Amino acid sequence: MAKLQLSLIMGANDRSRPVLDGAVSPDGIDLTCTVAHPSEIFWRQLHFQEFDVSEMSLSSLLMAMASGNRDWIGLPIFTSRRFFHTGAWVRTDSGIDQPADLKGKRVGVPEYQQTAALWSRGVLKHEFGVEPEDLEWWMERTEERSHGGATGFRPPAGIRFNRIGANQSIGTMLMDGQLDATLLYITDNNLVDRSRITLEGNPKFRLLFPNPGAEGQRYFEKTGIFPINHGMVVRRSLYEQHPWVALNIFNAFRLAKERVGARMREMVSTHVELGLLGPDARKALSVDPYPYGVKSNQKVLETVVDYSFEQGLTPRRMQLDEVFAPSTLDL
Fold first, then answer.
1. Which residues, 6 or more positions from 10, have their beta carbon under 8 angstroms from its beta carbon?
2. How many CB atoms lie within 10 A of CB 113?
3. CATH code, domain carrying 70
4. In this predicted structure, what is the pLDDT of residue 141?
5. Most-buried pick from 32, 58, 189, 215 (CB within 10 A)?
6. Considering only CA atoms, which of 253, 198, 302 is closest in space to residue 13?
7. 101 and 194: one domain?
8. Are 255 and 178 found together in one domain?
9. Does one domain contain both 189 and 237?
10. 22: phi > 0 → left, psi -120 to 50 → alpha, else beta; which?
């Protein structure tokens, strides 16, 4: 039987590299792979549905499905995770010394609905008592180049929401003192995000959390949550015709991740034996911080679903079996 010929687009990451370079292939599928910046990928897929398989913003996927979009079905291959709230920047003259000081301030965000912003607002609310309604929001992406232009985004009720003009950006507004802080900051060269000014090393700016690593560790030890940002999707019409593609794609990415992990453990083992690293390094690598699957990530996924509904991005609380392929729910 001839293999399916499918197109895939995603951002580059080490765990997926064996799939992207062809070292690992899904059974029964030949993939033509394209690497691009996630900001562009989500815009292209949500607006134009160009590729059969792709990386996808988890927040935008929830919103699209909640509004009745049937273009995609989720695959619990989680390509990006981070403690996003630790990436917030503030002006040093803004009077913002701790998260509570954000109240009443003008805060930038590349896209209000993006998953990193969703997580950051959730953490600010539940960890520090800062409600989304407490801030004045300024969004950089235009409707034409945003995820929200495809998902029907409207600012949630009660939010003070503004759009940044096309001749400005989060970076320029921060430099001019028109913004006090930015929840996220993207300067990578892509077709969607406009900021290019480097904040790091500029005395006008500092991170909201001076030690991001310590704050991430605190949050993880308290909640057990390592926030998921991106997953994968497959074209729903393709899945309905060939349901087996979901598990075959999942298994290929799982195998790719395991191969990369095995190489890392081998390298660490050598460094430990040579005395270049402490014995805790081997112990740390025995835990997979990037598990794939729905059941394996149930707490994290249910939390992001709760945040989406709580923040008014989805009109109801989405169920995980609405989002992900049935064959992946028990993984």
1. 16, 20, 33, 34, 35, 36, 41, 54, 55, 79, 232
2. 25
3. 3.40.190.10
4. 96
5. 58
6. 253
7. yes
8. no
9. no
10. left
Q: What does the alpha-carbon distance between residue 123 and residue 113 come to, in Å, rounded to a whole number?
A: 15
Last residue of a domain, one of 173, 205, 223: 223
Q: Are residues 92 and 67 in the same domain?
A: no
- Say whether both 126 and 171 belong to one domain: yes
pLDDT digits (tens, 9 = 90+) for 168-200: 999 999 999 999 999 999 999 999 999 999 999
Write down which residue in 191, 223, 255 finishes a domain: 223
Residues 6+ apart with CB under 8 A from 313: 59, 62, 63, 113, 118, 153, 156
DSSP state letters, 243-288: TTHHHHHHHHHHHHHHHHHHHHHHHHHHHHHTTSS-THHHHHHTS-
- Report residue 274's pLDDT band, with 50, 70 and 90 as the boundaries: low
Cα dist. 149→62, 112, 142, 152, 169 in Å?
15, 12, 8, 6, 18
**Domain coverage including residue 207:** 84-223
Q: Residue 78: which of 290, 329, 321, 299 has the closest Cα? A: 290
Quote the strand ranges of 13-105, DSSP E: 29-35, 53-57, 72-81, 89-91
Q: Quote the number of domains for the chain.
A: 2
Structure tokens at 46: 């949500």
- The CA distances from residue 78 to 1, 109, 110, 116, 161, in Å, are 30, 23, 21, 14, 30
The answer to whether residues 205 and 136 belong to one domain is yes
For residue 90, give the nearest of 53, 130, 30, 146 by alpha carbon. Answer: 130
pLDDT, tens digit, 9 for 90 and up, residues 303-331: 999 999 999 999 999 999 999 999 999 99
Handedness of CA 287, 285, 88, 140 (dihedral sign): negative
Verify that 155 and 211 share a domain, yes or no.
yes
Question: What's the CA gap between 61 and 97, in Å, rounded?
Answer: 34
Residue 272 confidence (pLDDT) = 52
3-state secondary structure of 138: strand
Q: Are residue 245 and residue 264 in the same domain, yes or no?
A: yes
